[in-house]
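call fold(seq) -> tokens
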Amino acid sequence: MVREDRGGPPGGPAAPAAASSVPALPSSVAQRLHHLGRRVACGPPVSVADGVTLLRGGAFRAMNVYLLDDPSGGVVAFDSGEKGMAGPILDAAAERGGLRRVILGHGDTDHRGAAPALRAAGVPIACHADAAPYAEGRGGREYWRPELLPRAVRAFHALSHRAVWDGGPVTIDETVAVGDDVCGFEVVDLAGHAPGQIGLWRASDRVAIVSDAFYVTSMWGRPQEPALPVRAYDHDLERARESLRRLAALDPATVLPGHLGPVTGDVRRRLEAAAEADVR
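ret:
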């Protein structure tokens, strides 16, 4: 689907900006600060599977964006991380032939975060049709229950969603469906945590990219064993369990989640255990 942008300043021409008394930084200093800001926002690209590059963003390097080599040239991003990652994503993609499109695993704030800035740079944004209202809307706030979180976590997340993670609503230019091919991966249904959540599965080497089908990070960003997302952020817990069971049944060798990871080793057993465990 294609949507028109609407907007612009109302009324006539804008008033001239007031002259600033602050001297401009020398270009060399400004450039260093620019590069420093990008290094703070995101770590260096890391190869995690054949044709798959991981960008780790955020203060704890727990926000994952995956760049997939596109057979037609350039790369496709799966998820967009937090809003400060837009520049590093474009930089890393430029080294690989350019960013062709972004596919959101789902529409939550910390997965659509950089998408508005990437779209403003001319990159089309895609997701599953069921995720589009949330990517274009309140980013998951429509169904979250933050009152279920401990008070300190609730305060930390409220600030992070608003000031750090979320770049705001983004227009969805295209949709993808279960069974579609994306750079040699098959789109699979992982809904439950969020409406329209999808993952990518490559049977040839048993690699799965799964957005938030499970967490390997606590609500404070600390590593943990695979677990279903907490009730405060789950749209449909029982559907999330079923999606995780189906993912485990694929018997993946490497799973690339939306935060931290990768998950390797006895993956199937660990995911099966997570699917059956109690959820806070």
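Residues 38-276 form a domain with the Metallo-beta-lactamase; Chain A fold (CATH 3.60.15.10).
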